[in-house]
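My convention is simple: the sequence line spells out the residues, with the fold written below as integer tokens. I include a record here:
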Amino acid sequence: MGIHRLKTEDIFVCIGKVLRPVGLTGELKVQNLSDVEQRFENEEELFIGPNSELAVPYRVESLEYRPDSLVLRLEDLDSVDKVEFLRGQYCYLPRIDEEWLDDDEFFVDDLVGLDVYDSQDRFIGEVKDIMNSPSSDILVVRRQSGEILLPMVDEFIQEINLEEMFIKVNPIEGLLEPSNAR
């Protein structure tokens, strides 16, 4: 599969969501939204905000992994009152750290908005979202007739080209039918 990655250093990638304060000393329970299990490890600085444009940098003082989340302590935020405003906000890292992506991995933000074509270069629709499922990620593709779901597996995905902003798929019979719409 011919893969080309977008090289944009000034865009952030979302890796977590602040769920709530933990205890009385300013620690935060954070949901890991990254496919990379230990993504927060070795990070000295995170950007936190309601979106990437409003995110501000915070220095990470400590990190503890828990079975369903992680607990962060940020420098100079040492009480519940000082961290409560972060509840529900997102954790971002600059995209310059693309070395943690394998050749067949992408940021969700890179795929949303791409045009989807079949193997005969016929337009199918536009990627609206990516859903996670136990077996594979699923492209949610918006068409005039509604949305369809396309599994992101080698049997279907022929090419993802971020430079030219398209995905080429080889759908099996019936996959593009309205019965697949959600």
